[in-house]
Amino acid sequence: MARDIYLCKDGSFTEDPDSCPGGVEDSLPGHMRERLSRMLSGILRHFPSDYGVSVDERGWAGIGEIVGSLRRLRSYSWVEEWHLRAIASLDPKGRFEVSGGKIRARYGHSIRVKVEPLSYEAPRTLYHGTSRDRLPSILERGIVRMKRLKVHLTENLGQALEVGRRHGDPVAVSIDTGCLERKGLRVEQASKTVYTVDYVPPDCIREVVPGERTSASGKSRRS
C-alpha cells in the first residue's frame, strides 16, 4: 500500500506529517494516491484522448486539463492540482515530471512521444523483471518492447522482481549493458531507477535471478 501524502502549509509535499513546516494543510490517503497514480499513468502513457487530454510530441499535458477531465468523473470529483504535483514529486521511481503547469510520464508510453533521457550512462548490469512462464521465450528471442515504445530495465533487482510478481512466479534477468552498447543499442536513463533500450538480444542476458541464482542457460549457480 502506498503511503499517505501531506500538503504542508508552506506548499511543500511530504509523506511524514511531522516534517511539515507550520503544520499540515491537507492530505491524500495512500489508497487514493495509488488509484490516482495509476489513472495518471494511463492517461499520460496510453489513452489521453479517451479523457479529452492533449499530450504534445514530448509527452507534456496540462495539469489543469487533466484535473478538469478527472473531476467530471464521479469517482475522481475530489481531485485537485496539488494531488498530481505531489504524486509526481514523491514517486519513488520518478515516473512523472512537472514543469510549470504541465506534467508528463518519464517512460512507459505506448503513444508516440519523445522524452529526453536523463543520461546515456548506464550501470554495467541492469535487470528486467518477468514471470517464469515467459522466460523460455525471452532466453530464445531476447526482450522485445511489445506494445510499449521501449524495453524497460532497472538497476534495482528488487524492483525487477516486483514487476515479475505482477505477471506470476517472478524472475529477473540480468543484462550486460556493455554488450548492448557494442551492438549499437543505446541505453537511456528514463527516471531515478528505470532505463530503456529498443531491444535486448538473448546473448546480452547474463543470468536469471529467481529466489536462487540460475544462469541464463538454465543451470543452477550459487551466489
Distance between the termini: 31 Å
The CATH architecture name of the largest domain reads Orthogonal Bundle
User: Could you tell me the radius of gyration in angstroms?
Assistant: 19 Å
How helix-rich are the residues, as a percent range? Answer: 25-40%
Sheet-strand content, in percent, reads 15-25%
Quantity of strands, as a count = 13
Mean pLDDT over all positions:
92
Could you please say which CATH topology of the largest domain applies here? Arc Repressor Mutant, subunit A
For the sheet with most strands, the description reads:
4 strands, antiparallel
Describe this entry's structure for a reader.
With 223 residues, this protein is an alpha+beta fold. The protein has two domains: 5-105, RNA 2'-phosphotransferase, Tpt1/KptA family, N-terminal domain (Arc Repressor Mutant, subunit A), CATH 1.10.10; 125-215, Alpha-Beta Barrel (ADP-ribosylation fold), CATH 3.20.170. It is built from six helices and 13 strands. The chain has helices spanning 30-45, 63-71, 81-90, 135-141, 157-165, 177-182, and strands at 5-8, 13-14, 24-28, 61-62, 96-99, 102-105, 125-131, 151-154, 170-176, 188-189, 194-197, 205-209, 214-215. A four-stranded antiparallel β-sheet has the order 7-9-12-13. Strands 2-1-3 form a three-stranded antiparallel β-sheet. A three-stranded antiparallel β-sheet has the order 4-6-5. A hairpin with a 2-residue loop joins strand 5 (96-99) and strand 6. The longest helix has 16 residues, at 30-45. Residues 211-223 have low confidence and may be disordered.
